[in-house]
């Protein structure tokens, strides 16, 4: 193998290192939707910087921005919804759903429904689906950031992070973890994972609740169905 691209779930650093160690090839992330196709890539055939953790750069022919709820473009590193500027994007082709309204088109913008940031160099970084963003004690927390840290623990095989309703904080961060074979899910292990997130991210981002499970609910394409986990947590 010369190169590899990841799809389904955002590519975390642990998987990138695994690909380098086991497959001996660069593994990069990219981003797209059924409605529009591929929108953001770490292009294998185009020369550009490849930043670990980044979804990449816009496909040639697409003009994209990070917007707030009022469709105002956000400054670098400020989270907002990813949107495509339709008039400025000759490759944009989605016109709507058959016999249905298209609520994700607002004026000149196609609204993806995904929260991202963009750095000073124009690279896009996935934060989470708008529905997946966790609001805890006034903080907006991207589940992908927490999942990336939890995946660094050698006992963890898979993880999904969700928000669980809480009367004081609005939501608390909850991690649902599949452990590697032969590892026992103990209270000491929970505390170890929590402390790891505290140290690498922040106090408000650590999972106050952790469940160990044998598997995570997924679509046929491998995307984690977080809405099922959120339903179970209510």
Structure, described:
This protein has 234 residues and is an alpha+beta fold. It has two domains: 4-127, Roll (Luciferase, domain 3); 133-233, ANL, C-terminal domain (GMP Synthetase, Chain A, domain 3, 2-Layer Sandwich), CATH 3.30.300. Helices cover 18% and strands 33% of the residues. It is built from four helices and 14 strands. The chain has helices at 13-23, 143-150, 187-200, 226-233; strands at residues 4-6, 27-33, 37-41, 57-58, 64-67, 80-85, 105-106, 109-118, 124-129, 134-136, 139-141, 156-166, 170-179, 209-213. Strands 5, 6, 7, 8 and 9 form a five-stranded antiparallel β-sheet that branches. Strands 1-2-3-4 form a four-stranded mixed β-sheet. A hairpin with a 2-residue loop joins β7 (105-106) and β8. The radius of gyration is 18 Å and the shape is globular. The termini are far apart.
CATH class of the largest domain: Mainly Beta
Q: Quickly give the structural class.
A: alpha+beta
Question: What is the mean pLDDT?
Answer: 90
In CATH, the homologous superfamily of the largest domain goes by the name Luciferase, Domain 3
Total helical elements? 4
Helix content: 10-25%
Task: Tell me the strand percentage band.
Answer: 25-35%
CATH topology of the largest domain: Luciferase, domain 3
Residue stretches low in confidence (pLDDT < 50, at least 5 long) are none
Count of all domains: 2
Span of the ends, CA to CA: 44 Å
Largest sheet: 5 strands, antiparallel
| C-alpha geometry | globular
Question: From the 3D coordinates, which CATH architecture of the largest domain would you assign?
Answer: Roll
Radius of gyration: 18 Å
Q: Give the helices and strands as they follow along the chain.
A: EHEEEEEEEEEEHEEHEH
SS elements, strand count: 14
């Amino acid at each position: 193998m010369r190169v590899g691209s990841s799809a389904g779930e955002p590519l975390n650093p642990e998987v990138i290192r695994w690909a380098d160690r086991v497959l001996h090839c660069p593994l990069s992330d990219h981003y797209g939707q059924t409605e529009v196709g591929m929108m953001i890539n770490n292009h294998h055939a185009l020369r550009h910087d490849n930043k670990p953790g980044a979804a990449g750069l816009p496909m040639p022919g697409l003009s994209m921005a990070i917007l707030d709820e009022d469709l105002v473009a956000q400054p670098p590193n400020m989270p907002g919804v990813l949107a495509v500027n339709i008039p400025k994007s000759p490759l944009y082709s989605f016109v709507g759903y058959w016999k249905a309204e298209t609520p994700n088109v607002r004026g000149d913008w196609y609204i993806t429904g995904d929260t991202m940031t963009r750095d000073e160099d124009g690279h896009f970084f996935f934060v989470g689906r708008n529905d997946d963003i966790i609001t805890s004690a006034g903080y907006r927390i991207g589940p992908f950031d927490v999942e990336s840290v939890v995946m660094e623990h050698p006992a963890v095989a898979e993880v999904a992070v969700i928000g669980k309703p809480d009367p004081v904080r609005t939501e608390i961060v909850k991690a649902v973890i599949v452990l590697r074979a032969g590892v026992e899910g103990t209270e000491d292990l929970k505390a170890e994972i929590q402390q790891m997130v505290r140290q690498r991210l922040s106090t408000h981002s650590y999972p106050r609740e952790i469940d160990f499970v044998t598997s995570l609910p997924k679509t046929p394409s491998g995307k984690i169905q977080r809405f099922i986990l959120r339903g179970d947590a209510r």
